[in-house]
Design a protein that fits this description.
Length: 344
């Protein structure tokens, strides 16, 4: 049975053709799926009963089941979803004053193995399909209501997006197609821990969306201790890939940097970071470490983060402190899944 949200527009047109439908039916079906967000083919009332019955036999719409939702006092919502094979993933809805953001997962678990990440402790199970990625948006948008449209999507949840490139690319195509979810490419961000072949593919195949790179250190020796994939793609290779990337001041690369007390937060680290990214159109997000039970690291004190930030600004590098949302719920990536697993 076809997961219909696994099809981009060209594939949906081909699927409709194979079923013997008129070509224009593809756009009609897409509007029901992505604009009206229906849960069954029976709701597609401008299709004949025979067509709806045929679609019900050949395809399915929802591939996720909501297991739990936690809501923070700041409006952040954390979702735990179950997949058809029983595996579970997380998504986070983050409301802002003028826009709403959804953080989506791309894999069950994560193979990157970053030492500060709770998701990494469970290892890697499998890639998500494009349908499973897109369905996170559909389910959350239904839940929060159409009056709070999700305008921004960040691929920063469970998993390493560029190790699931093909499915992430297809999900982006569905999210940004005008007859599907119709998001602006400028409002979609794909994050990577530094998968250089993926960055190069993004440059050629997916460069209209934003790129974020989780750097987290300024020397290979330092980074290998917290980001094991650095042994495969060290900092120098990552920086060369970023210099090849088609970025500019209107579409800067985001450098993500989790602040770990006594590990990567010295002023010398800040000065090395300046040298690494000099000449690349970037902005830097300094992220206070979101601790969890048994975490091997401690958060950097706020005053030290601000000193680090000042070094960057003094060298004309835009640097922002990205405070975590949802502090009163299971905010850290993987925390809700872990908590529910322990309680089961």
């Amino acid at each position: 049975m076809v997961e219909i949200k696994n099809l981009n527009m060209d594939e949906l047109k081909e699927f409709v053709k194979e079923l013997g439908f008129e070509p224009y039916r593809a756009k009609q079906i897409a509007q029901w799926l992505y604009k009206k967000r229906v849960k069954s083919f029976d709701e597609m009332t401008n299709l004949s009963k025979r067509a709806r019955e045929l679609l019900s036999r050949k395809a399915r719409i929802d591939v996720l089941k909501t297991v739990k939702v936690e809501e923070s006092s700041d409006g952040t919502r954390k979702y735990l979803f179950e997949l058809s094979d029983g595996n579970r993933i997380e998504s986070v809805f983050i409301p802002e004053k003028d826009w709403n953001t959804l953080c989506v997962s791309t894999q069950v678990g994560c193979p990157a193995g970053c030492k500060f990440c709770l998701t990494a402790k469970d290892g890697f199970t499998r890639n998500l399909t494009a349908a499973e990625i897109v369905d996170q948006y559909i389910h959350v948008q239904r839940d929060v209501g159409e009056e709070r449209r999700i305008s921004n999507v960040v691929f920063m949840g469970m998993g390493e997006p560029l190790l699931n490139f093909d499915n992430v690319k297809k999900a982006v195509e569905i999210m940004t197609h005008r007859d599907m979810l119709d998001l602006s490419t400028r409002k979609v961000t794909v994050s990577t821990v530094g998968v250089v072949p993926g960055i190069d593919r993004m440059a050629k195949e997916m460069n209209k969306v934003k790129l974020a790179v989780s750097l987290h250190a300024t020397t290979d020796e330092q980074r290998e201790k917290i980001v094991p994939l650095n042994r495969k793609w060290p900092i120098g290779e990552i920086m060369r890939a970023l210099r090849r990337y088609p970025a500019d001041n209107n579409r800067r690369i985001m450098i993500e940097y989790v602040m770990l007390k006594g590990v990567n937060d010295s002023l010398e680290d800040a000065r090395r970071l300046v040298k690494l990214i000099k000449g690349i159109p970037v902005k830097v997000n300094l992220i206070p470490f979101n601790s969890y039970p048994g975490a091997p690291f401690q958060p950097t004190p706020r005053e030290d983060i601000e000193k680090f930030q000042k070094v960057l600004w003094d060298h004309n590098i835009a640097a922002f402190i990205r405070d975590s949302r949802g502090q009163d719920i299971s905010a850290a990536c993987g925390m809700l899944r872990t908590k529910e697993k322990k309680s089961a």
